[in-house]
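ARCHIVE RECORD
Type: protein–small molecule complex
Small molecule: 4'-phosphopantetheine
Source of inputs: curated submission
Record status: active
Notes field left blank by submitter.
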Amino acid sequence: MNVRIAVCPGSFDPVTNGHIDIFGRAADLFDEVIVATGLNPSKTRLFTPDERIDMLTEVCRAFPNVRVAGFTGLLTAFCQEQGAVAIVKGLRAVSDYEYELQMAQMNSSLAEVETVFIPTSPEYSFLASSLVKEVAMFGGDVSGLVPDFVRERLITRLDERKRSGA
Ligand code: PNS
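STRUCTURE (tokenized, with ligand):
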């Protein structure tokens, strides 16, 4: 049997309930899904790659055909290495589309890999890791937006940052 592998790439800094919704739906569509944290050079990160992988591994335990990996180079090179036929991305709004379309087209010019867009469930359409971090930084309640253990790690990391003056 031909195993259809998809890669769900992202920064996941940290993983949100919106990401988890996409992982589960991708897992229903493909035989195997690799949730992969990569480098987005235009973003600064709160958690290290190992910490992000650790949180992703914890949340992906719920999906038997999903595994977690990190990659450092091009996403297309990682997809080729893994034998993946598709890249799965969640689309929240029209504003996501322009950037995602550009990346999808660039990626398909680099390798034979399709990008599949999954529309975000309406309850998560406003959800972004960057906003979750900002809300938590100013003392807002992010429960319901990220898993509880992620919320705890987020609060701890922000406290550490505050105390160190970073
Ligand atoms: O969650 P993000 O930050 O939107 O994820 C972006 C990510 C990591 C998927 C993207 O930046 C990426 O693919 N980085 C790897 C380097 C690469 O392949 N760049 C070319 C993209 S067209």
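CURATOR ANNOTATION: DSSP finds six helices and five strands in the chain.
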